[in-house]
């Protein structure tokens, strides 16, 4: 798979910002390697939104609720967007990041070899913002291998939207604990380079940020994969298992369980991966 050298990333991003007239992203920083783009962005931004930070390799990335993001050398995209922080931002930004990541993955899949089903039919969003393969088992299957994820943090008056996308990995590149649970664009047949995925992500993030809350919710809902499936969620240390009857950024998770209907809040409810 051809991949543009990291030395051209910043120039390409700044050209995109100028040519597309982006509103949310106005500057970029690129590292060959860093422990975490979240930490690098927090330090560089100085409390001013508009920055996007990219890393050729992120060796200490973290995920939602304290989980880690696997270091797979120089084969993925690690990005952090610094945006304005508002009181309601965390839930909205979680959805924005998920939709933007999914759209970028879809754009990468448009470069897949051959024809077949559309990119949108191949991937979707699994609560709250993981981009996953759509399982071949139809409605209620709950989605397959993870392709991208999102982490929302805050500090110094700004929000940090971290997005990781698997791009160039092959099956043997995954550690044992992720083999069969994670997938890359390359494994799904895409010929997209990391730079192409980065540019698609930045442009789509800027676009989704400009949407109304209702539009973001609609785009998220059109891509969710859990409705109708039997899944386990955890909230405040308690696990609940049932059929997903409703799910969304504004409504949280609604489960039909043997004991009755259970409603769980959006921001503090986690899907249990078993």
Compact overview of the structure:
Helix content is 27%, strand content 30%.
Keywords:
five-stranded antiparallel β-sheet; alpha+beta; single chain; BirA Bifunctional Protein, domain 2; SH3 type barrels; 27% helix; 2 domains; 30% strand; 274 residues; globular
What is the fold's blueprint, element by element?
Layout: H1 9-20, E1 27-34, H2 37-45, E2 51-58, E3 76-84, H3 89-109, H4 119-122, E4 123-126, E5 130-133, E6 146-155, E7 158-166, H5 194-209, H6 213-223, E8 230-235, E9 238-248, E10 252-257, E11 260-264, E12 269-271
Parallel strand pairs: 1-2
Antiparallel strand pairs: 2-3, 3-7, 4-5, 5-6, 6-7, 8-9, 8-12, 9-10, 10-11
Helix pairs in contact: 1-5, 3-5, 3-6
Written overview of the protein:
With 274 residues, the chain is an alpha+beta fold. The protein has two domains: 6-223, 2-Layer Sandwich (BirA Bifunctional Protein, domain 2); 230-271, SH3 type barrels (Roll). The chain has six helices and twelve strands. It has helices spanning 9-20, 37-45, 89-109, 119-122, 194-209, 213-223, and strands at residues 27-34, 51-58, 76-84, 123-126, 130-133, 146-155, 158-166, 230-235, 238-248, 252-257, 260-264, 269-271. The strands form two sheets. A seven-stranded mixed β-sheet has the order 1-2-3-7-6-5-4, sandwiched between helices. Strand 1, helix 2 and strand 2 form a beta-alpha-beta unit. Helix 3 crosses helix 6 (213-223). The radius of gyration is 18 Å and the shape is globular. The two termini are 33 Å apart. The mean pLDDT is 89.
């Amino acid at each position: 798979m051809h991949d543009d050298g990291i030395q051209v990333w910043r120039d390409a991003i700044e050209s995109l910002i100028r040519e597309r007239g982006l509103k949310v992203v106005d500057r970029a920083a690129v590292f060959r390697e860093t422990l975490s783009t979240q930490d690098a962005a927090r330090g560089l931004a100085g409390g001013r939104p508009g920055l996007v930070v990219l890393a050729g390799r992120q060796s200490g990335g973290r995920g939602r609720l304290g989980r880690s993001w696997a270091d797979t050398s120089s084969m993925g995209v690690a990005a952090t967007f610094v945006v304005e922080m508002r009181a309601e931002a965390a839930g909205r930004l979680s959805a924005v990041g998920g939709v933007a990541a999914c759209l970028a993955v879809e754009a990468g899949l448009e470069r897949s070899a051959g024809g077949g089903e559309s990119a949108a039919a191949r991937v979707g969003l699994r609560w709250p913002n993981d981009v996953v393969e759509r399982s071949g088992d139809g409605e209620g299957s709950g989605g397959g291998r993870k392709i991208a994820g999102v982490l929302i943090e805050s500090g110094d008056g700004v929000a940090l939207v971290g997005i990781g996308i698997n791009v160039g990995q092959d099956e043997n590149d995954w550690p044992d604990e992720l083999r069969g649970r994670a997938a890359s664009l390359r494994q799904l047949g895409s010929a997209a380079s990391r730079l192409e995925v980065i540019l698609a992500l930045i442009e789509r993030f800027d676009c989704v940020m400009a949407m109304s809350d209702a539009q973001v919710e609609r785009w998220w809902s059109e891509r969710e994969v859990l409705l109708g499936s039997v899944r386990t969620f955890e909230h405040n240390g308690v696990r609940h298992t049932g059929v997903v009857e409703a799910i969304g950024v504004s409504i949280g998770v609604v489960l039909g369980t043997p004991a009755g209907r259970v409603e769980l809040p959006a921001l503090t409810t986690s899907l249990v991966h078993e």
